[in-house]
Amino acid sequence: MDTESLDATNAGKGGLFGRHSYGRYGAREGIWRLLDEFQQTGVQVTFFMVPDDAQRHLHIVDAVLKQGHEIAVRGKVKAEAGGPSTLEFLEQDRDRLQQITGHRPVGWRAANGLVTEQTLPALADLGYVYDSSAQDDDVPYVMQGPSGSTLVELPVFDYLTDATFYTHRHTDVRVRKAWAEEADAQYCAGGYINLTLHTRGDVGSSRLPRVQAVGDFIRAMIRRPGVAFYRAADLASAWKETSASTEAFPTCRAPQI
Known about the structure:
257 residues; 6-stranded mixed β-sheet; 10 helices; globular
């Protein structure tokens, strides 16, 4: 879910609000269609929300929670990466979303997919259970730091993200074909799918034909024997409990100048 936050950033100092109203479309129309589709199919999902957006749309937060969906943090790493302000920022987002929803969020996703070497250990130390920002594996994995704190990574994949296609004005027919092919391959391999959807009216799945594509994809997966649906928090907890090994948090090579 992103409503005004991204639009405000894109509008810049000129305040060109009218040029960037796709987020408002998602809040006014799109998210309700997605919620209806999830309710009809009986699946529970995870909504990653920027705390500012959640605060402005408390009725959306209420509707999401009433259906049993999870709300996690959608945040950004500040420019002064690794400094005190970055760690404070991560903690502030967690606390703000807890105040808004009444539940402490256990998941985090980078709004732009960018993290620093210090981000993931900081999330673990702050009590987050999982991150879902990386694209470095086909299945989840567990990281552990010297302090003993752990963090589950739930990898994403561009080919299973709606914005990858809709940013370039591909049709929902092409999206259906791509998702179906990927689902077939993952199903045969015993893999996992982290389907990433946006509520926006431009690059998201909230327009009428696009919502139908989402619903049809879910129904097709429901019909497959052995398929299970998880909120991100539930999958991360299950993976952590059954994982036989952990790995160190990733490090970043020093830039070569």
